[in-house]
Amino acid sequence: MPSPLSRRAFLSRSAAVGAGTAVAESGLARGESATAQQNSLESLVDDAADRALTNHDAGGVTVAVVDGDTVLTNGYGHAFRSEGVPVRADETLFRVGSVSKVATWTAAMQLLDGNRIEADASVDSYLDAVDIPRTYDRPITLEHLATHTPGFEVRSRGDSVRSPEYVRPLAESVSTDVPTRVRPPGELPQYTNYAAALAGQLVADVTGRRFGTYLAESVFEPLGMTESTFDPAPPELVPADDTSVEDVVSFYSDVAPASGLHTTGTDMARLLRAHLNGGVVDGERILSASAVAEMHRQWYTPHEEIDGMAFGLFEEFCGGTRLVRHGGSVPQFASEFALIPTEGVGLFVVAHGDDASEAKQEVVDAVLDRFAPVEPTGNALSPSGTPDRADELAGRYRSVNTTDNATSEKLVFGLLTSRPIDVQVTDDGRLLTHQGDSTDEWVEVEPLVFEHVQEDSTLLFRDDGGTVTHLLDGLSAYEKVAYHERLSVQGWLAAIATVTALTGLVGWPMARGWRRFRGGDSPPSSAIRARWMAGAGVAGLALFVVVLAGVVVATASMEGPTLFNRPPSWLWVVFLVPTAGAVVTVGAVGYAARAWYRSEWSLASRVHYSAVVGAAAVLYWLLHYWNLLAV
């Protein structure tokens, strides 16, 4: 392997600014002071990239900025896992994660632009590879997919695999384990990879070409994006001569339209230009000007005070400047694609490394501070009184990614993903939200709508039939949960119930052995049968834990996709174990009821038996709550 060079040796930008990409100082000086004019955009980006690589654990960054006729594309640091290879904006590949969706939605807009599909027609009428469950009367449309409002649950399974050999054809990926429809389309935003993957398959089915082929021929080639590819494992990603991609990469997208693009800074500059120049780059048109405008307009918002969705792009206001943007991340990579359509300004940044997200954001903040500065808001807002329905607002809200998940992944989302939000209302009328270590203050500006006291941010509470059910922090939705649904409460319940249940599973055999050793009367036969049934119910819980742990260990050591990424089709059998145990426990509840009704056994025996059965019932309820029963 080439001898590694220091990070500092790479901080000077690579030779990636060629003919037609030089910085035009006159275009940078709009409305700037003499001092600011001396700091060119190139210097600003160089300084930001310097900080990104110096202050964060990141190995390389590539940046593309478009400002009218000015196009800047630079590379910094070294290529991914190749410390002897400098980043070149025109040839070094980066993974861009969910920024892949920008290309996907651009392709979908092409079909709308050519009148080959309609945005408000059922996608089922265009899809050949997959049938959408008809859970609700209202059909899912392309508009719903592009605004992340189709009503699908969020799933991680099927999103990625650990080796390129396991990547499936897109048609197979989107038609296997179709997510459950958990609400009518258009009702609530919920970001999913499946929406973009399904849109990609729609493009493939309508055009009769593979998704990657269509993008290459209809988007990349006309724009001159010569290095961009949806190949799951392009060898150029890790260009070191003695290192293969498979040796250093463990994430491969199984839903390419959502997260499978590999590209360069120079290529993405051309996509930025297409979106800013009415669909044309160097005389090659991929969209009509009206289609570009349609793609950038607001298509959905849950409330007029909340930033909404354009066609596949997120709407965001920085001060008074409207952006349409999309971020992305996969392991070791983080990216940003942002447009200011009214100013003809676009930005693309991608970084790699353990702190890729922080490094990327360092550059994004610096550039946006130039083109979309946020002025201080001045005096903080003050409440004018107690919020309407204050008592209903207080409580805990958990991400709908968890609450609306219909699979065993619910527990994974609940434990490992977005943190809940706790809401309280103070005596002076302020609304406080606590999420992790952060606390924010809000003031009601209209019923169920709150503005941040200092920042340009809005909270919206959703009313369903007279009951407050959801909180929307921007486009992130949270559902109000009852006290017994809190993880802390359930954790204590699980701990107490486990100890109690074990007093029966372990205590009854020990007591029987002690009686045999010391002598003594055996309990009534009805008590023995009851204990066997209750013990079998508790044993079902223990067996489930053992079997599940064994499956996790076995699949981790086997060749093939991981249990988390693509569970085997037979995994449902594992959940039959606790289901059978739950059925047995129902029988044990019957024994307990009969014992109390007939005053059988001693009082102490009835109390202990009921406690053991009740504990088992609590544990099975928890399994049911987290979708760990085969029902």
List key phrases describing it:
631 residues, alpha+beta, Beta-lactamase, Lipocalin, 4 domains, 8-stranded antiparallel β-barrel, 7-stranded antiparallel sheet, 21 strands, 39% helix, globular, disordered N terminus
Summarize model confidence as the mean pLDDT. 89
CATH architecture name of the largest domain: 3-Layer(aba) Sandwich
- How many distinct helices? 21
What class, by secondary structure content? alpha+beta
So what's the oligomer here? Answer: single chain
Portion of residues in helices? 25-40%
Strand order of the largest sheet: 14-15-16-17-18-19-20-21
pLDDT < 50 runs, ≥5 residues: 1-30, 33-38
Strand content: 15-25%
- CA-to-CA gap between the ends? 54 Å
Return Rg in Å.
29 Å
CATH topology category name of the largest domain? Beta-lactamase
What is the top-level CATH class of the largest domain? Alpha Beta
CATH superfamily of the largest domain: DD-peptidase/beta-lactamase superfamily
- Number of discrete domains: 4
User: What characterizes the major β-sheet?
Assistant: 8 strands, antiparallel, barrel
**Shape summary:** globular
Count of DSSP E strands?
21
Protein name: CubicO group peptidase, beta-lactamase class C family
Keywords: Membrane, Transmembrane, Transmembrane helix
Pfam families: Beta-lactamase
Domain Beta-lactamase-related: 46-358
Structure description:
It comes from Halopelagius inordinatus. This is CubicO group peptidase, beta-lactamase class C family. The chain crosses the membrane at residues 492-511, 532-558, 570-591, 603-623. The chain is of the alpha+beta class. The chain folds into four domains: 1-56, no CATH class; 94-314, Beta-lactamase (3-Layer(aba) Sandwich), CATH 3.40.710; 390-481, Lipocalin; 487-625. The strands form five sheets. An eight-stranded antiparallel β-barrel has the order 14-15-16-17-18-19-20-21. Strands 3-2-1-13-12-11-10 form a seven-stranded antiparallel sheet, with helices on both faces. A two-stranded antiparallel ribbon has the order 4-7. A hairpin with a 2-residue loop joins strand 17 and strand 18 (449-452). Helix 19 (525-557) packs antiparallel against helix 20 (576-598). The longest helix has 33 residues, at 525-557. The chain is globular, with a radius of gyration of 29 Å. The model is unreliable at 1-30 and 33-38 (pLDDT under 50).
